[in-house]
Specification:
heterodimer, A: mainly alpha, MetI-like fold, 15 helices, 0% strand, B: alpha/beta, D-Maltodextrin-Binding Protein, domain 2, 2 domains, 6-stranded mixed β-sheet, 12 strands
Protein backbone atom coordinates (compact mmCIF):
# COMPACT_ATOMS: atom_id res chain seq x y z
CA UNK A 1 0.00 0.00 0.00
CA UNK A 2 2.85 2.35 0.84
CA UNK A 3 4.56 1.38 -2.43
CA UNK A 4 1.45 2.50 -4.24
CA UNK A 5 1.60 5.87 -2.50
CA UNK A 6 5.21 6.26 -3.49
CA UNK A 7 4.42 5.96 -7.20
CA UNK A 8 4.01 9.25 -9.03
CA UNK A 9 0.49 10.55 -8.65
CA UNK A 10 -1.69 11.43 -11.60
CA UNK A 11 -1.90 15.20 -12.00
CA UNK A 12 -5.58 15.37 -11.17
CA UNK A 13 -5.19 13.59 -7.87
CA UNK A 14 -2.15 15.62 -6.80
CA UNK A 15 -4.02 18.78 -7.64
CA UNK A 16 -7.00 17.75 -5.57
CA UNK A 17 -4.89 16.73 -2.60
CA UNK A 18 -2.94 19.98 -2.55
CA UNK A 19 -6.12 21.94 -3.14
CA UNK A 20 -7.77 20.19 -0.20
CA UNK A 21 -4.83 20.99 2.07
CA UNK A 22 -4.84 24.68 1.19
CA UNK A 23 -8.63 24.87 1.53
CA UNK A 24 -8.33 23.24 4.94
CA UNK A 25 -5.83 25.92 6.01
CA UNK A 26 -8.15 28.67 4.83
CA UNK A 27 -11.05 27.08 6.70
CA UNK A 28 -8.90 26.80 9.83
CA UNK A 29 -7.99 30.49 9.71
CA UNK A 30 -11.59 31.56 9.18
CA UNK A 31 -12.78 29.17 11.89
CA UNK A 32 -10.23 30.55 14.32
CA UNK A 33 -11.25 34.15 13.71
CA UNK A 34 -14.93 33.25 14.08
CA UNK A 35 -14.27 31.33 17.31
CA UNK A 36 -12.30 34.20 18.85
CA UNK A 37 -14.87 36.74 17.65
CA UNK A 38 -17.77 34.81 19.22
CA UNK A 39 -15.99 34.70 22.56
CA UNK A 40 -15.00 38.36 22.29
CA UNK A 41 -18.52 39.54 21.46
CA UNK A 42 -19.90 40.03 25.02
CA UNK A 43 -17.18 42.45 26.06
CA UNK A 44 -17.55 44.53 22.88
CA UNK A 45 -21.33 44.59 23.09
CA UNK A 46 -21.27 45.75 26.72
CA UNK A 47 -18.52 48.34 26.31
CA UNK A 48 -19.03 49.60 22.75
CA UNK A 49 -16.28 51.81 21.41
CA UNK A 50 -15.54 52.87 24.98
CA UNK A 51 -13.57 49.63 25.17
CA UNK A 52 -10.73 51.44 23.43
CA UNK A 53 -11.02 54.51 25.65
CA UNK A 54 -9.26 55.27 28.90
CA UNK A 55 -10.61 55.31 32.43
CA UNK A 56 -10.37 52.76 35.22
CA UNK A 57 -7.04 50.91 35.00
CA UNK A 58 -7.31 47.51 33.29
CA UNK A 59 -5.84 45.74 36.35
CA UNK A 60 -8.67 47.01 38.56
CA UNK A 61 -11.24 45.90 35.98
CA UNK A 62 -9.66 42.46 35.65
CA UNK A 63 -9.69 42.00 39.40
CA UNK A 64 -13.40 42.88 39.59
CA UNK A 65 -14.14 40.52 36.70
CA UNK A 66 -12.69 37.61 38.61
CA UNK A 67 -14.82 38.24 41.64
CA UNK A 68 -17.99 37.84 39.58
CA UNK A 69 -19.75 34.51 39.42
CA UNK A 70 -20.67 32.25 36.51
CA UNK A 71 -23.33 34.55 35.06
CA UNK A 72 -21.86 38.03 35.37
CA UNK A 73 -24.06 41.13 35.08
CA UNK A 74 -23.34 43.41 32.08
CA UNK A 75 -21.54 45.88 34.35
CA UNK A 76 -18.90 43.21 35.11
CA UNK A 77 -17.60 43.48 31.54
CA UNK A 78 -16.47 47.07 32.07
CA UNK A 79 -12.99 47.52 30.55
CA UNK A 80 -11.07 50.52 29.25
CA UNK A 81 -8.18 49.06 27.28
CA UNK A 82 -6.47 52.22 26.01
CA UNK A 83 -3.39 51.82 28.30
CA UNK A 84 -2.85 48.33 26.88
CA UNK A 85 -3.26 49.49 23.27
CA UNK A 86 -0.95 52.42 23.97
CA UNK A 87 1.70 50.12 25.43
CA UNK A 88 1.42 47.82 22.41
CA UNK A 89 1.73 50.64 19.88
CA UNK A 90 4.54 52.36 21.78
CA UNK A 91 6.75 49.27 22.08
CA UNK A 92 6.05 48.20 18.49
CA UNK A 93 6.66 51.58 16.87
CA UNK A 94 9.79 52.43 18.86
CA UNK A 95 11.44 49.04 18.45
CA UNK A 96 10.61 48.82 14.73
CA UNK A 97 12.06 52.31 14.23
CA UNK A 98 15.28 51.34 16.02
CA UNK A 99 15.52 48.01 14.21
CA UNK A 100 14.84 49.73 10.87
CA UNK A 101 17.87 51.99 11.15
CA UNK A 102 20.14 49.20 12.39
CA UNK A 103 19.02 46.68 9.81
CA UNK A 104 19.19 49.09 6.86
CA UNK A 105 22.83 49.94 7.47
CA UNK A 106 23.75 46.39 8.45
CA UNK A 107 22.26 45.06 5.23
CA UNK A 108 23.98 47.66 3.06
CA UNK A 109 27.25 46.65 4.66
CA UNK A 110 26.62 42.91 4.29
CA UNK A 111 25.41 43.04 0.68
CA UNK A 112 27.58 45.76 -0.85
CA UNK A 113 30.66 46.36 1.25
CA UNK A 114 31.57 43.33 3.33
CA UNK A 115 34.36 41.06 2.12
CA UNK A 116 33.11 37.75 0.78
CA UNK A 117 34.35 35.72 3.77
CA UNK A 118 32.64 37.95 6.32
CA UNK A 119 29.44 37.85 4.30
CA UNK A 120 29.45 34.07 4.29
CA UNK A 121 29.79 34.13 8.08
CA UNK A 122 27.27 36.87 8.92
CA UNK A 123 24.30 35.67 6.88
CA UNK A 124 23.96 32.27 8.63
CA UNK A 125 24.58 33.91 12.01
CA UNK A 126 21.76 36.37 11.40
CA UNK A 127 19.44 33.54 10.31
CA UNK A 128 20.32 31.78 13.55
CA UNK A 129 19.60 34.89 15.61
CA UNK A 130 16.21 35.23 13.95
CA UNK A 131 15.25 31.79 15.21
CA UNK A 132 16.15 32.24 18.90
CA UNK A 133 12.99 31.54 20.96
CA UNK A 134 11.64 34.67 22.64
CA UNK A 135 11.56 33.13 26.11
CA UNK A 136 15.37 32.94 25.98
CA UNK A 137 15.47 36.68 25.42
CA UNK A 138 13.00 37.04 28.28
CA UNK A 139 15.28 35.13 30.64
CA UNK A 140 18.28 37.22 29.62
CA UNK A 141 16.18 40.29 30.29
CA UNK A 142 15.08 39.18 33.75
CA UNK A 143 18.48 37.91 34.85
CA UNK A 144 20.79 40.50 33.27
CA UNK A 145 19.21 43.62 31.80
CA UNK A 146 16.49 44.36 34.34
CA UNK A 147 18.83 44.17 37.39
CA UNK A 148 21.44 46.21 35.50
CA UNK A 149 19.02 49.01 34.65
CA UNK A 150 17.34 48.84 38.07
CA UNK A 151 20.53 48.88 40.13
CA UNK A 152 22.89 50.99 38.02
CA UNK A 153 20.95 53.33 35.75
CA UNK A 154 17.87 54.30 37.76
CA UNK A 155 18.88 56.77 40.48
CA UNK A 156 17.36 57.01 43.95
CA UNK A 157 16.05 60.51 43.30
CA UNK A 158 14.34 59.41 40.07
CA UNK A 159 12.69 56.60 41.99
CA UNK A 160 11.58 58.88 44.78
CA UNK A 161 10.20 61.52 42.41
CA UNK A 162 7.53 59.18 41.04
CA UNK A 163 7.21 56.87 44.05
CA UNK A 164 3.48 57.40 44.42
CA UNK A 165 2.51 56.64 40.84
CA UNK A 166 4.90 53.98 39.56
CA UNK A 167 7.89 51.93 40.62
CA UNK A 168 11.09 52.14 38.63
CA UNK A 169 12.55 48.68 39.18
CA UNK A 170 14.43 48.46 35.91
CA UNK A 171 11.70 46.48 34.19
CA UNK A 172 9.98 48.75 31.72
CA UNK A 173 9.98 50.45 28.35
CA UNK A 174 13.76 50.65 27.91
CA UNK A 175 14.52 46.97 28.48
CA UNK A 176 11.45 45.91 26.49
CA UNK A 177 12.39 48.02 23.48
CA UNK A 178 16.05 46.99 23.55
CA UNK A 179 15.23 43.28 23.60
CA UNK A 180 12.42 43.64 21.07
CA UNK A 181 14.81 45.46 18.73
CA UNK A 182 17.36 42.67 19.06
CA UNK A 183 14.60 40.16 18.37
CA UNK A 184 13.19 41.69 15.22
CA UNK A 185 16.35 43.20 13.68
CA UNK A 186 17.63 39.82 12.36
CA UNK A 187 14.38 39.21 10.46
CA UNK A 188 14.56 42.68 8.95
CA UNK A 189 18.24 42.27 8.06
CA UNK A 190 17.58 38.92 6.37
CA UNK A 191 14.69 40.31 4.32
CA UNK A 192 16.47 43.57 3.49
CA UNK A 193 19.61 41.70 2.40
CA UNK A 194 17.56 39.63 -0.02
CA UNK A 195 15.93 42.74 -1.42
CA UNK A 196 19.23 44.59 -1.88
CA UNK A 197 20.88 41.55 -3.45
CA UNK A 198 18.08 41.24 -5.97
CA UNK A 199 18.71 44.71 -7.44
CA UNK A 200 20.82 44.16 -10.59
CA UNK A 201 24.39 45.24 -9.89
CA UNK A 202 24.60 46.77 -13.36
CA UNK A 203 22.34 49.58 -12.14
CA UNK A 204 24.76 50.55 -9.42
CA UNK A 205 27.74 50.14 -11.73
CA UNK A 206 26.00 52.42 -14.20
CA UNK A 207 25.53 55.03 -11.50
CA UNK A 208 29.20 54.83 -10.54
CA UNK A 209 30.14 55.15 -14.20
CA UNK A 210 28.07 58.34 -14.33
CA UNK A 211 30.25 59.79 -11.55
CA UNK A 212 28.57 58.99 -8.21
CA UNK A 213 30.84 57.71 -5.49
CA UNK A 214 30.09 54.10 -4.41
CA UNK A 215 28.21 54.99 -1.23
CA UNK A 216 26.02 57.55 -3.01
CA UNK A 217 25.38 54.99 -5.73
CA UNK A 218 24.21 52.44 -3.17
CA UNK A 219 21.89 54.89 -1.43
CA UNK A 220 20.57 56.54 -4.59
CA UNK A 221 20.13 53.45 -6.75
CA UNK A 222 20.19 50.14 -4.88
CA UNK A 223 18.38 51.21 -1.71
CA UNK A 224 15.97 53.37 -3.69
CA UNK A 225 15.04 50.53 -5.99
CA UNK A 226 14.55 48.11 -3.12
CA UNK A 227 12.68 50.66 -1.00
CA UNK A 228 9.29 48.95 -1.06
CA UNK A 229 10.83 45.63 -0.05
CA UNK A 230 12.67 47.30 2.83
CA UNK A 231 9.46 48.88 4.09
CA UNK A 232 7.67 45.57 3.67
CA UNK A 233 10.36 43.91 5.81
CA UNK A 234 9.73 46.49 8.54
CA UNK A 235 5.99 45.85 8.35
CA UNK A 236 6.44 42.09 8.68
CA UNK A 237 8.85 42.56 11.57
CA UNK A 238 6.32 44.78 13.32
CA UNK A 239 3.86 41.89 13.15
CA UNK A 240 6.30 39.89 15.25
CA UNK A 241 6.81 42.78 17.67
CA UNK A 242 3.04 43.16 18.00
CA UNK A 243 2.56 39.51 18.88
CA UNK A 244 5.47 39.15 21.30
CA UNK A 245 4.03 38.05 24.62
CA UNK A 246 6.16 36.03 26.99
CA UNK A 247 9.30 38.16 26.76
CA UNK A 248 7.36 41.39 27.33
CA UNK A 249 5.45 39.82 30.18
CA UNK A 250 8.77 39.03 31.87
CA UNK A 251 10.55 42.38 31.44
CA UNK A 252 7.89 45.09 31.10
CA UNK A 253 7.21 45.67 34.80
CA UNK A 254 3.61 44.49 34.75
CA UNK A 255 1.62 47.71 35.13
CA UNK A 256 -0.76 49.12 32.56
CA UNK A 257 0.83 52.54 32.95
CA UNK A 258 0.98 54.84 29.95
CA UNK A 259 4.64 55.95 29.77
CA UNK A 260 4.68 59.72 29.17
CA UNK A 261 7.19 62.52 29.03
CA UNK A 262 5.75 64.49 31.98
CA UNK A 263 8.73 63.65 34.18
CA UNK A 264 11.43 63.76 31.53
CA UNK A 265 12.89 61.35 29.02
CA UNK A 266 14.67 59.06 31.50
CA UNK A 267 11.63 58.32 33.61
CA UNK A 268 9.68 57.79 30.38
CA UNK A 269 12.22 55.12 29.40
CA UNK A 270 12.10 53.38 32.79
CA UNK A 271 8.29 53.38 33.03
CA UNK A 272 6.50 50.03 33.31
CA UNK A 273 3.83 49.08 30.81
CA UNK A 274 1.62 46.27 29.62
CA UNK A 275 0.88 45.25 26.05
CA UNK A 276 -2.04 43.30 24.57
CA UNK A 277 -0.02 40.13 24.22
CA UNK A 278 1.58 40.27 27.67
CA UNK A 279 -1.86 40.88 29.23
CA UNK A 280 -3.07 37.58 27.80
CA UNK A 281 -0.04 35.81 29.29
CA UNK A 282 -0.38 37.49 32.68
CA UNK A 283 -4.10 36.89 33.15
CA UNK A 284 -4.46 33.54 31.38
CA UNK A 285 -5.20 31.74 34.65
CA UNK A 286 -8.39 33.70 35.06
CA UNK A 287 -9.71 32.89 31.61
CA UNK A 288 -12.47 30.73 33.04
CA UNK A 289 -14.09 33.72 34.73
CA UNK A 290 -16.53 34.60 31.90
CA UNK A 291 -16.00 38.38 31.81
CA UNK A 292 -12.21 38.15 32.01
CA UNK A 293 -12.15 35.37 29.42
CA UNK A 294 -14.20 37.45 27.02
CA UNK A 295 -11.90 40.44 27.52
CA UNK A 296 -8.84 38.32 26.74
CA UNK A 297 -10.54 37.00 23.59
CA UNK A 298 -11.32 40.57 22.59
CA UNK A 299 -7.64 41.44 22.92
CA UNK A 300 -6.77 38.36 20.88
CA UNK A 301 -9.22 39.38 18.17
CA UNK A 302 -7.66 42.83 17.86
CA UNK A 303 -4.20 41.26 17.64
CA UNK A 304 -5.39 38.86 14.93
CA UNK A 305 -6.85 41.72 12.93
CA UNK A 306 -3.70 43.79 13.45
CA UNK A 307 -1.61 40.89 12.19
CA UNK A 308 -3.79 40.51 9.09
CA UNK A 309 -3.67 44.22 8.32
CA UNK A 310 0.12 44.23 8.64
CA UNK A 311 0.63 41.25 6.37
CA UNK A 312 -1.73 42.68 3.73
CA UNK A 313 0.16 45.99 3.97
CA UNK A 314 3.43 44.11 3.51
CA UNK A 315 2.04 42.60 0.31
CA UNK A 316 0.64 45.86 -1.04
CA UNK A 317 3.82 47.79 -0.38
CA UNK A 318 5.85 45.31 -2.37
CA UNK A 319 3.58 45.57 -5.45
CA UNK A 320 5.44 48.49 -7.12
CA UNK A 321 8.60 46.35 -7.21
CA UNK A 322 7.05 44.29 -9.99
CA UNK A 323 7.35 47.08 -12.47
CA UNK A 324 11.14 47.05 -12.10
CA UNK A 325 11.11 43.23 -12.45
CA UNK A 326 12.94 43.09 -9.13
CA UNK A 327 12.13 40.24 -6.79
CA UNK A 328 11.78 41.33 -3.21
CA UNK B 1 -11.09 -2.22 -4.47
CA UNK B 2 -8.58 -4.46 -2.73
CA UNK B 3 -7.01 -1.44 -1.08
CA UNK B 4 -10.37 -0.25 0.16
CA UNK B 5 -10.91 -3.62 1.81
CA UNK B 6 -7.49 -3.46 3.47
CA UNK B 7 -8.19 -0.02 4.82
CA UNK B 8 -11.52 -1.11 6.25
CA UNK B 9 -9.92 -4.13 7.91
CA UNK B 10 -7.26 -1.91 9.43
CA UNK B 11 -9.90 0.51 10.69
CA UNK B 12 -11.92 -2.33 12.20
CA UNK B 13 -8.86 -3.68 14.02
CA UNK B 14 -7.99 -0.24 15.34
CA UNK B 15 -11.57 0.22 16.46
CA UNK B 16 -11.63 -3.05 18.37
CA UNK B 17 -8.32 -2.25 20.04
CA UNK B 18 -9.57 1.24 20.93
CA UNK B 19 -12.66 -0.20 22.59
CA UNK B 20 -10.81 -3.07 24.21
CA UNK B 21 -8.13 -0.97 25.88
CA UNK B 22 -10.46 1.11 28.06
CA UNK B 23 -12.55 -2.00 28.76
CA UNK B 24 -9.49 -3.75 30.16
CA UNK B 25 -8.61 -0.68 32.21
CA UNK B 26 -12.10 -0.47 33.68
CA UNK B 27 -10.98 -2.10 36.91
CA UNK B 28 -8.71 0.92 37.54
CA UNK B 29 -10.59 4.09 38.51
CA UNK B 30 -9.17 7.31 37.11
CA UNK B 31 -9.29 10.37 39.36
CA UNK B 32 -8.86 13.61 37.41
CA UNK B 33 -7.56 16.69 39.21
CA UNK B 34 -6.91 20.25 38.04
CA UNK B 35 -6.19 23.57 39.69
CA UNK B 36 -3.69 25.55 41.71
CA UNK B 37 -0.06 25.59 40.60
CA UNK B 38 1.02 26.24 44.20
CA UNK B 39 -0.34 22.98 45.56
CA UNK B 40 0.55 20.91 42.48
CA UNK B 41 3.89 19.61 43.88
CA UNK B 42 2.17 18.41 47.06
CA UNK B 43 -0.83 16.78 45.36
CA UNK B 44 1.47 15.13 42.85
CA UNK B 45 3.61 13.59 45.63
CA UNK B 46 0.51 12.43 47.51
CA UNK B 47 -1.02 10.84 44.40
CA UNK B 48 2.19 8.96 43.61
CA UNK B 49 2.35 7.55 47.12
CA UNK B 50 -1.35 6.66 47.05
CA UNK B 51 -0.96 4.74 43.78
CA UNK B 52 2.01 2.88 45.25
CA UNK B 53 0.01 1.88 48.33
CA UNK B 54 -3.05 0.85 46.32
CA UNK B 55 -1.57 -0.79 43.23
CA UNK B 56 -3.89 -1.46 40.28
CA UNK B 57 -6.87 0.27 41.86
CA UNK B 58 -6.62 3.93 40.99
CA UNK B 59 -4.94 6.20 38.48
CA UNK B 60 -4.45 9.97 38.64
CA UNK B 61 -4.47 12.61 35.94
CA UNK B 62 -3.32 15.90 37.44
CA UNK B 63 -3.35 19.20 35.54
CA UNK B 64 -2.36 22.68 36.71
CA UNK B 65 -3.87 26.00 35.63
CA UNK B 66 -4.59 28.03 38.74
CA UNK B 67 -7.04 27.95 41.64
CA UNK B 68 -9.84 29.51 39.61
CA UNK B 69 -9.41 26.87 36.89
CA UNK B 70 -9.78 24.15 39.53
CA UNK B 71 -12.97 25.73 40.87
CA UNK B 72 -14.53 26.10 37.42
CA UNK B 73 -13.49 22.64 36.23
CA UNK B 74 -14.89 20.85 39.25
CA UNK B 75 -18.08 22.91 39.24
CA UNK B 76 -18.63 22.03 35.57
CA UNK B 77 -17.90 18.36 36.23
CA UNK B 78 -14.82 18.28 34.00
CA UNK B 79 -12.65 16.86 36.82
CA UNK B 80 -13.26 14.79 39.94
CA UNK B 81 -11.27 17.06 42.26
CA UNK B 82 -10.25 20.70 42.03
CA UNK B 83 -7.10 21.94 43.76
CA UNK B 84 -7.51 25.35 45.37
CA UNK B 85 -4.86 27.41 47.15
CA UNK B 86 -7.16 30.04 48.66
CA UNK B 87 -10.09 30.10 51.05
CA UNK B 88 -13.64 29.76 49.66
CA UNK B 89 -15.01 33.01 48.20
CA UNK B 90 -18.57 34.26 47.94
CA UNK B 91 -18.27 34.22 44.16
CA UNK B 92 -17.51 30.49 44.05
CA UNK B 93 -20.28 28.39 42.45
CA UNK B 94 -22.72 26.89 44.95
CA UNK B 95 -22.57 23.22 45.92
CA UNK B 96 -18.81 22.87 46.17
CA UNK B 97 -17.30 21.15 49.20
CA UNK B 98 -13.86 22.31 50.36
CA UNK B 99 -11.63 19.79 52.14
CA UNK B 100 -8.51 21.40 53.67
CA UNK B 101 -5.49 19.13 53.14
CA UNK B 102 -2.48 21.19 54.21
CA UNK B 103 -1.43 24.53 55.66
CA UNK B 104 1.27 26.83 54.35
CA UNK B 105 2.68 30.14 55.46
CA UNK B 106 2.75 33.19 53.21
CA UNK B 107 6.15 34.71 53.98
CA UNK B 108 7.03 38.35 53.39
CA UNK B 109 10.40 38.46 51.66
CA UNK B 110 13.05 41.10 51.03
CA UNK B 111 16.34 41.15 49.22
CA UNK B 112 19.14 39.29 51.00
CA UNK B 113 21.12 42.52 51.46
CA UNK B 114 18.21 44.04 53.38
CA UNK B 115 18.54 42.45 56.83
CA UNK B 116 15.15 43.64 57.99
CA UNK B 117 14.38 41.62 61.11
CA UNK B 118 10.81 42.51 61.88
CA UNK B 119 7.78 44.37 60.59
CA UNK B 120 4.78 45.19 62.71
CA UNK B 121 1.40 44.47 61.23
CA UNK B 122 0.70 48.14 60.63
CA UNK B 123 4.11 48.74 59.02
CA UNK B 124 3.38 45.86 56.65
CA UNK B 125 -0.02 47.26 55.74
CA UNK B 126 1.47 50.73 55.21
CA UNK B 127 4.18 49.40 52.92
CA UNK B 128 1.88 47.31 50.75
CA UNK B 129 -0.89 49.91 50.53
CA UNK B 130 1.61 52.57 49.49
CA UNK B 131 1.44 54.80 52.59
CA UNK B 132 5.10 54.28 53.44
CA UNK B 133 7.16 54.74 50.29
CA UNK B 134 10.68 55.00 51.70
CA UNK B 135 12.83 52.50 53.57
CA UNK B 136 13.93 55.36 55.84
CA UNK B 137 10.46 55.21 57.40
CA UNK B 138 11.06 51.60 58.47
CA UNK B 139 13.38 51.20 61.47
CA UNK B 140 15.74 48.25 61.14
CA UNK B 141 15.84 48.23 57.34
CA UNK B 142 19.34 48.34 55.87
CA UNK B 143 18.03 49.30 52.43
CA UNK B 144 17.66 52.99 51.67
CA UNK B 145 15.51 54.91 49.22
CA UNK B 146 12.18 54.04 47.68
CA UNK B 147 10.47 50.78 48.58
CA UNK B 148 9.85 48.59 45.52
CA UNK B 149 6.66 46.70 46.29
CA UNK B 150 6.37 43.54 44.21
CA UNK B 151 2.95 41.95 43.90
CA UNK B 152 1.26 39.23 41.88
CA UNK B 153 -1.33 39.54 39.11
CA UNK B 154 -4.85 39.43 40.53
CA UNK B 155 -5.48 35.91 39.20
CA UNK B 156 -3.07 34.49 41.80
CA UNK B 157 -4.72 32.74 44.75
CA UNK B 158 -1.76 33.64 46.97
CA UNK B 159 -2.42 37.37 46.44
CA UNK B 160 -6.02 36.93 47.60
CA UNK B 161 -4.79 35.10 50.71
CA UNK B 162 -2.05 37.63 51.38
CA UNK B 163 -4.53 40.51 51.29
CA UNK B 164 -7.03 38.79 53.58
CA UNK B 165 -4.56 37.40 56.09
CA UNK B 166 -1.77 39.95 56.32
CA UNK B 167 -3.18 43.22 54.91
CA UNK B 168 -6.39 43.22 56.97
CA UNK B 169 -8.37 42.81 53.74
CA UNK B 170 -6.85 45.92 52.13
CA UNK B 171 -5.61 45.86 48.54
CA UNK B 172 -1.98 46.14 47.42
CA UNK B 173 -1.62 49.69 46.05
CA UNK B 174 -1.87 50.27 42.34
CA UNK B 175 1.73 51.29 41.58
CA UNK B 176 3.24 47.99 42.73
CA UNK B 177 4.75 45.96 39.91
CA UNK B 178 2.91 42.71 39.22
CA UNK B 179 4.61 39.39 38.51
CA UNK B 180 2.78 36.59 36.74
CA UNK B 181 4.35 33.72 38.70
CA UNK B 182 5.95 32.97 42.05
CA UNK B 183 9.30 32.29 40.34
CA UNK B 184 9.35 35.73 38.73
CA UNK B 185 8.34 37.28 42.06
CA UNK B 186 11.30 35.64 43.80
CA UNK B 187 13.62 36.70 40.96
CA UNK B 188 12.43 40.31 41.15
CA UNK B 189 13.09 40.44 44.91
CA UNK B 190 16.41 38.65 44.55
CA UNK B 191 17.62 41.21 41.97
CA UNK B 192 16.49 44.41 43.61
CA UNK B 193 17.97 45.53 46.98
CA UNK B 194 14.93 47.78 47.59
CA UNK B 195 12.28 45.16 46.93
CA UNK B 196 9.69 43.58 49.19
CA UNK B 197 7.28 40.83 48.15
CA UNK B 198 5.57 37.65 49.36
CA UNK B 199 5.76 33.94 48.50
CA UNK B 200 3.77 30.85 49.42
CA UNK B 201 6.67 28.41 49.42
CA UNK B 202 9.59 30.09 51.18
CA UNK B 203 11.06 26.67 51.97
CA UNK B 204 12.23 26.27 48.38
CA UNK B 205 13.51 29.86 48.09
CA UNK B 206 15.61 29.82 51.25
CA UNK B 207 19.04 31.30 50.68
CA UNK B 208 18.11 33.49 47.72
CA UNK B 209 15.79 35.87 49.59
CA UNK B 210 15.25 36.91 53.20
CA UNK B 211 12.04 36.25 55.17
CA UNK B 212 10.85 38.99 57.53
CA UNK B 213 9.25 38.32 60.92
CA UNK B 214 5.72 39.66 61.21
CA UNK B 215 4.97 41.21 64.63
CA UNK B 216 7.91 39.31 66.05
CA UNK B 217 6.87 35.91 64.70
CA UNK B 218 9.17 34.18 62.22
CA UNK B 219 7.73 32.55 59.12
CA UNK B 220 8.66 28.89 59.43
CA UNK B 221 7.16 25.45 59.83
CA UNK B 222 6.82 25.49 63.60
CA UNK B 223 5.04 28.87 63.77
CA UNK B 224 2.74 27.80 60.93
CA UNK B 225 2.00 24.53 62.76
CA UNK B 226 1.25 26.27 66.04
CA UNK B 227 -0.76 28.96 64.27
CA UNK B 228 1.13 31.86 65.87
CA UNK B 229 2.19 33.15 62.45
CA UNK B 230 -0.57 35.40 61.09
CA UNK B 231 -0.23 34.45 57.40
CA UNK B 232 -1.32 30.82 57.47
CA UNK B 233 -3.36 29.72 54.45
CA UNK B 234 -4.74 26.36 53.37
CA UNK B 235 -4.67 24.13 50.35
CA UNK B 236 -8.03 22.56 49.59
CA UNK B 237 -9.30 19.61 47.60
CA UNK B 238 -12.68 20.63 46.23
CA UNK B 239 -15.45 18.34 45.01
CA UNK B 240 -18.90 18.98 43.58
CA UNK B 241 -21.15 17.89 46.40
CA UNK B 242 -19.72 15.52 49.00
CA UNK B 243 -16.77 13.46 47.74
CA UNK B 244 -17.73 9.94 46.71
CA UNK B 245 -15.95 6.76 45.62
CA UNK B 246 -12.28 6.98 44.74
CA UNK B 247 -12.12 10.74 45.35
CA UNK B 248 -13.53 10.33 48.85
CA UNK B 249 -11.09 7.51 49.59
CA UNK B 250 -8.14 9.62 48.37
CA UNK B 251 -9.15 12.73 50.33
CA UNK B 252 -9.82 10.66 53.43
CA UNK B 253 -6.40 9.07 53.10
CA UNK B 254 -4.71 12.49 52.78
CA UNK B 255 -6.46 13.79 55.88
CA UNK B 256 -6.02 10.75 58.11
CA UNK B 257 -3.12 8.48 57.19
CA UNK B 258 0.35 8.84 58.65
CA UNK B 259 1.97 8.22 55.24
CA UNK B 260 0.25 11.30 53.85
CA UNK B 261 1.14 13.39 56.91
CA UNK B 262 4.76 12.46 56.43
CA UNK B 263 4.73 13.72 52.84
CA UNK B 264 2.91 16.92 53.79
CA UNK B 265 5.37 17.58 56.62
CA UNK B 266 8.35 17.71 54.21
CA UNK B 267 7.51 21.26 53.09
CA UNK B 268 4.02 22.06 54.35
CA UNK B 269 2.02 21.50 57.51
CA UNK B 270 -0.72 18.86 57.94
CA UNK B 271 -4.17 20.07 58.92
CA UNK B 272 -4.88 18.93 62.45
Amino acid sequence: MLARLRKPWPDVRAERMLGAVSCLLAVLVVGMVVFVAIHAWPTFSHNGLGWLGSGETPETSFEKMQATSVNPPPSAYHLRAWPLLYGTLLTTVVSVACAFVVSLFASIFIVELAPERLRRLTIPVIRLLASVPSVVYGLLGVLVLVPFVGNHLVTASEKASVANTIELTGAGLLVTVVILTVMIAPIMIALTCEALASVPSSWREGAIALGLNPLRAILAVTVRAARPAIVAAAVLASARALGEAIMISMVSGGRAFKPNLDHGLLIFLYSPLRTFASTIVDFREGISAPALGSSLYAIALLMLLGGFVLSVCGYLIKLPLRKYQVRG
Amino acid sequence: MQRLRRISVALAVAGVLGVAAPAAANAVTTVTISGATASYPLVNLLAQKYVKLHPGKVKFKIAQGGAQVGINDVAAGRVTIGDVSRDPLLSDPAGLVFYPIAKYGICVITNKSDALANLTSSQLVNIFTGKTRSWSGIPGASASGTIDVVSRTSVAGVLTNFQTLLLEGKKVFSAASEQSSEGLMRQAVENDPNAIGFVSNYQSDKGSVHAVNISGVACNRSTVTSGTYPGVARFYEVTKGKATGAASAFIGWIRASSAARKIISTQWVPVT
